[in-house]
Every structure is written in C-alpha cells, then in structure tokens.
Amino acid sequence: VMRGGEEVKISKRAGSYVTLRDLIEWTSKDAVRFFLLSRKPDTEYIFDIDLALAQNNDNPVYYVQYAHARICSVLAAWAEKDGGQVAQLAAVDLSPLEGPQAAALMLKLAQYPAMLTAAAVDNAPHDITFYLRELAASYHSYYDAERILVDDVQVKQARLALVAATAQVLANGLAVLGVSAPTRM
Fold first, then answer.
1. CA distance 72 to 93
2. Residues 6 or more apart in contact with residue 123 via CB below 8 angstroms
3. Taking the CB of residue 115, how many other CB atoms lie within 10 A of it?
4. Burial tier of 64 (Cβ tally within 10 Å: 0-12, 13-18, 19+)
5. Under 8 Å between Cβ of 173 and 112
6. Which of 178, 170, 175 lies closest to 71, judged by CA?
7. pTM for the full model?
C-alpha cells in the first residue's frame, strides 16, 4: 500500500497491517473494488491511495465513472431541451454515424457480450475492468471528436442512441463488478 508517495509499513510481528476496511475508509468502496479487480489474483499489487483518490484520467475507476456521468449529462441536456427519453432511441437509424471514433465506439460496444462471457468462463474479472477502461477511452475520444446535440435530428438521434448504449454497457459492466455508475460527478 502506498500513501503520500511512501509505502505503508506492514509488519506481522509488530501487529501493524492494513485491512480492506482501512482502504475503503481512506478511499471508497468503488475504488477498492475496481482497483483490486483490475489485477489477476496471482500477481503482486501495490494499492496507491493517492491514485485512488485522484479525480483525473489517471485514476481508472474515476475515468470509467466519469464517462458514464458525462453521458448522463448529455442525455439530461437533451431531455431538458427536447423532452426526449432514452426509450425513444431504441429503433433509431444508426446509418448517420460516421467517422473513425463512432466506428471504434460501436466496435467496442459489440465486443461486450463475448468479453463478458470469456471473463465469466475464465474467472477473470480483470478483463471487465480493462474492457471498461477501453470503452471509456473510446467514448471520450468520440465525445471530443463529435458534437452530440446537433441541429440535424437524424444525426442527433443516432449519436444519442450510440452514447445511450455506451452508458448502458458502462453501467452493466460496473454493476457486474459491484461498482456504482454515478449519473453526476
């Protein structure tokens, strides 16, 4: 365990140790779950308290949760402006989606069922954390490349359908890990 850039000293003889409860109190339940599930069980792991508390792209759980919250913010803005609801996006034509970022995001979404099945069969929850980080990166790249709430109704609905699907997969993946998917951060 690292804290303040230094290793937290643990000694069985001296009776000093760090419990999961300590890690949760120092950081959060979500951070502890995500960080511990991010590694194979047979590998040595250093839990960095400062990284788990960081609210930036270096913190993997923050990065994934922020992607979900960012999408929820876009969907809320759409609902407020146009009165739209996510259920309306189920049968939207996705053909207006263009560009490499949209294609990459759709491809990443399509990988979810197979990845989840493989992770379950292999007892590999770390595969889910890697996938969620990659999906969040694909979403952030898409968000940076394309305006979602545009004037063209067909394009806007296609983009909203894509990001709503992304939010659903992020929420589902986080739920499998027992990590929350906040709508605001």
1. 21
2. none
3. 20
4. buried
5. yes
6. 170
7. 0.88
Q: Round to whole Å and give the CA distance between 182 and 185.
A: 7
Q: Which residues in 17-42 are b (16+ Cβ under 10 Å) and which e?
A: eeeeeebeebbbebbbbbbbbbeeee
Judged against a pLDDT cut of 70, whether residue 3 lies above it is answered with yes
| Residue of 17, 20, 40 whose CA lies nearest to 31 | 20
126-146 confidence digits (pLDDT tens): 999 999 999 999 999 999 999
Q: Compute φ and ψ for 29, nearest 5 degrees.
A: -60, -45
Cβ 140 vs Cβ 104: under 8 Å: no
Partners of residue 62 on adjacent β-strands: none
In angstroms, the Cα distances linking 98 to 12, 60, 113, 119 are: 58, 28, 24, 31
Rg (CA), the chain: 19
Place of tokens 């952030």: 140
Take residue 43 and report the two structure tokens written for it.
């590998």
